[in-house]
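Q: Sequence in, structure out?
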Amino acid sequence: MGTPVPRVACALFCQTPILTEIGSYRCRNWMPRWDIEAGLFRHHPEKPSSVSVEEIKQFPTVDRRRNPGVPSEQREAGEVAVFQELGKALTSSLQLDQVLRTIMEKIDEFLRPDNWSLLLLDEPKQELYFELAVGKASQALKDVRVKVGQGIAGWVAQHGEIVIVPDTSKDTRFFGKVDEKTKMETRSIVAVPVKFRDTCLGVIELINCVGPEGFDPRDLKLLEALSDFAAIALENARHVKRIHELTIKDDCTSLYNARHMGFILDTEIYRSQRYNYEFSIVFIDLDHFKQVNDTHGHLVGSRLLGEIGEALKTNCRLIDFAFRYGGDEFVLLLPQTSKDNAINVARRLHKLIRETVWLKAEGLNVRLTPSLGLAAYPSDSKSKEGLLHLADEAMYLVKNTDRDRVAAANMGILPMEGSATGEAAG
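A: Exactly. Output:
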């Protein structure tokens, strides 16, 4: 197999193969064995197991969906074909949906659950959400979230262990709210963690697929292997996303960078031309920022830029874009915003920056004033270069006079009156 994908977030994706080891020893020649006295699956003693499986009892209302008449040789060939197909998907595409779609098809083809789902972990919120849901009432799961530790899936995400529940009515961990949402009856559950090394990325959950004879150990082995492929695909997708973010975002402020600004501006000009929209851009330069670096050092200066960048994001609409243009300069792009509304926004941000006491948590209490310039499409210019030039020129008109003011293209420095309020453009 290939070299494992490194977990270092900023590692260059092109330096490591896509395919990684499939979960330590899961896919090697071992088979879980049924321990009659203990009432659970046991692995070979030389391979310690992390699987925690509930006692399997007869469940008369559910029949296993696999055709028992299929010869073992034919079944083995089918499973080998599954791994080959997934391996090709992993090594030929960085598209997460392609790999997950293949896994989805194979779970349905081989295991035939009534419903099944892939829940992914939202790490900041410590919640599971349904990335994929297959079966009846799957659409009802779109907005459902399950806290880590809640229900069977939440327990599996928290402990990183497989759980087989043949009768949910006898398991205190079962979370009935999902059934209330879907109007379905969950009688049995098989839940497998999707783990990359020691990190749980999500849970694969199969509903109503435990038959009278329990859950076939060979099915369990196949399901674990599929979860490993899902983990590899998810981890690769995270690397690709992180690398993409590094190419479009500024490390210091987490705002978009100047390179990405050019792309967004081109997109917005095309959109505004097509739908006859207006939009505006605002340049912001921090006055005498060099004094902060000279007095407190460049690390403090970088933290101050980060704090101001966060304030700009917080005070923008969701459809607005904030960029770090370079040094102590920022740019805002305000879609569907007229020049008059952009002036109100610029005045509000001017007031915010000059009246805020920055780095209070560090006891530095830094105060700054900004110089702002703005231009609007199409009233001031219809080209990207023209808009950038006019907004930059308006800003430098302020910088070269008294600073601490707002100027607009073709209007000059604006009076201070009315700068106390201003609503975001609608």
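The radius of gyration is 29 Å.
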